[in-house]
Design a protein that fits this description.
ABC_transporter-like_ATP-bd, binds adenosine-5'-triphosphate, 259 residues, Rossmann fold, 25% strand, six-stranded mixed β-sheet, four-stranded antiparallel β-sheet, 33% helix
Length: 259
């Protein structure tokens, strides 16, 4: 499998603690990877560094794009935020969606921020919501949806842009166990059907068990990895181009969820 995201010797300190201590990590394209470990072991810090949300103190992070490898740790703030919008999707427990917008507007906004016109953005957003079982709920605000439905909106928003890597932090953390299973099914199926890579931070053993690979952190270091991927070689030089990937859900995936 091809490496899509590669981190070398990542280190991140906070006053009084080392959140990441020389972490090497490579994700293969299309893999679903759970990041587990005790509270404070560095899971969220690793996810945020890989996603370009946090800057590591040291180390290299390379995203392999179809045009050229991109070194996240060398990009400026504007290039990094563009890369996050175009290449990455996020499913967090809270914070990525705007309560004052409807489900449709929340999903369409991700495309509009990338320059897609409103009509096209809303049409694609509607396709994604329907594919995730939310047809008929497009005009509801988040407060008019259940917790599981809100997470489906987040899953649609994370993927509508054609993001190649989806980052999830405790995506089912606030849900009961039956709803968690449903949301996890939707997340894993939609990501797999569209060939995306999924990195999910979780405390839930059921979530970890459903992922192809489990990486365990302790005290800022990887102490276990069920599927180490060979490193792709030295870190790539910095580059600027960010491609514009396709955006609609795959036909396969629509079929699987349009029931
Ligand atoms: N903004 C911050 N300021 C100071 N210390 C921080 C900050 N963020 C994280 N840390 C510290 O870094 C270490 C790793 O934190 P991180 O949130 O990555 O762990 P985690 O494994 O995700 O924890 P949890 O499972 O509780 O969410 C912890 O010791 C934490 O206290």
């Amino acid at each position: 499998m091809n490496a899509i995201l590669h981190a070398q010797q990542l280190t991140k300190h906070y006053p009084g603690s080392i959140a990441l201590d020389n972490v090497d990590f490579t994700a293969s394209a299309g893999q679903s990877i759970a990041i587990i470990g005790p509270s404070g072991s560095g899971k969220t810090t690793l996810l945020h560094c890989l996603a370009g949300i946090l800057r590591p103190d040291a180390g290299a992070i390379t995203l392999n794009t179809p045009s050229s490898p991109l070194r996240l740790d060398t990009l400026g703030d504007a290039a990094l935020s563009r890369l996050r919008r175009e290449e990455f999707g996020f499913v967090f427990q809270q914070g990525m969606l705007l309560p004052e917008l409807t489900a449709l507007e929340n999903v369409a906004l991700a495309l509009m921020l990338n320059g897609t016109d409103r009509a096209t953005s809303e049409a694609r957003a509607a396709e994604w919501l329907a594919a995730l079982g939310l047809a008929g709920m497009e005009q509801r605000r988040l407060g008019e949806l259940s917790g599981g439905q809100v997470q489906r909106v987040a899953i649609a928003r994370a993927q509508v842009t054609g993001a190649r890597v989806v980052f999830a932090d405790e995506p089912t953390g606030a849900l009961d166990s039956a709803t968690s299973k449903e949301v996890l099914d939707v997340l894993l199926h939609s990501v797999a059907a569209n060939g995306r890579t999924l990195l999910v931070v979780t405390h839930d053993p059921n979530v970890a068990a459903r992922c192809e690979r489990v990486v365990e952190l302790r005290d800022g270091r990887i102490v276990a990895d069920s599927g180490t991927v060979p490193a792709p070689g030295p870190a790539a030089p910095a580059a600027q181009a960010v491609p514009n990937p396709p955006a609609a859900p795959s036909a396969n995936f629509k079929g699987a969820f349009n029931v």
